[in-house]
Design goal:
Layout lengths: L1 H28 L1 H28 L3 H31 L30 H24 L5 H28 L4 H39 L2 H13 L9 H6 L6
The structure holds fe (ii) ion (2 copies).
The site of one fe (ii) ion has 6 residues, from helix 3 and helix 5.
Length: 258
């Protein structure tokens, strides 16, 4: 039954990847956007690395401490790989890009620890969260690698990072089963629900941004029109050119600052 569930989940993941492939191809096609996204990924990976160093500091488990430090070193290396490739792509651009749109919600990077407070989590909750985060990163990076046929160096970067993410995904699951043999399934479900909630919040924030922009545009073209007309009318009533300053104001001007 467990094997059957895993097969269904794998199948659904393959379907999702196939459905999103045209979207990812479009997102990664533009060189400037590709560079910006890689630089953003570098920041997230470096953030994740710092959080893992903190996790290594606070864990009482010596095995986890060693693994977290190895993991942190990997994330730091990923940050360096993404940063170098992003910078190299920026150097190939003839003119700076004007659009800053990165389409992060269509093609996210590794989520890192999503601003979790490491000190408030025990090892098993942290491992459950890390496992899901690494799994999602491995799935996303595999999709990005698949649409990168025209950019072999970036494809190679994703290939290399992907190998590490697959290892992170496996070790976090095996350590979770070791640290919490009875509760590891329920902890994974709790972490899944937490990620779902954060996904909903991200979506809600993105929608609020879109609707906010839409409402402000409508207000600009409706509510501000009468004020613009009044300002134009006032401008027409002003005589053109320079106006003489009154003699009273002119004489006093040298005695005061304004
Ligand atoms: Fe990573
Ligand atoms: Fe990772």
């Amino acid at each position: 039954m467990k094997g059957c569930n895993a097969n269904v989940a794998d199948f659904l993941m393959q379907v999702m990847r196939a459905l999103l492939r045209p979207v990812h191809r479009w997102v990664w096609l533009d060189t400037a956007r590709r560079a910006r996204k890689l630089l953003r990924f570098a920041e997230t990976e470096a953030d994740g690395g710092r959080d893992l160093v903190r996790a290594a500091e606070v864990t009482p488990d010596p095995v986890l401490r060693r693994l977290f430090l190895f993991h942190a070193r990997d994330e730091q290396r990923h940050a360096e790989l993404f940063r170098r490739r992003g910078a190299a792509l920026l150097c190939t651009l003839s003119a700076p890009s004007r659009s800053g749109y990165r389409a992060d919600w269509l093609a996210p990077g590794e989520r890192g620890l999503d601003d979790l407070r490491i000190e408030e989590l025990d090892d098993s909750a942290l491992l459950a969260f890390l496992h899901l985060s690494e799994k999602s990163a491995a799935t996303d990076f595999a999709s990005y690698r698949d649409v990168m046929q025209r950019d072999p160096p970036t494809r190679a970067v994703f290939e290399e990072v992907l190998r590490d993410e697959a290892y992170h995904m496996k070790y976090t699951l095996s350590q979770l089963a070791r640290v919490s043999p009875q509760r590891h399934r329920s902890l994974l479900w709790r972490a899944r629900l937490g990620r779902l909630w954060k996904g909903y919040l991200r979506l809600a924030i993105a929608l609020a941004g879109v609707f906010g922009g839409l409402i402000l545009t409508i207000l600009y073209f409706t509510l501000l029109v009468p004020f613009a007309c009044l300002a134009k009318r006032a401008a027409w009533q002003e005589p053109p050119g320079w106006l003489p300053v009154s003699s009273e104001r002119n004489n006093a001007s040298l005695d005061r600052q304004y």
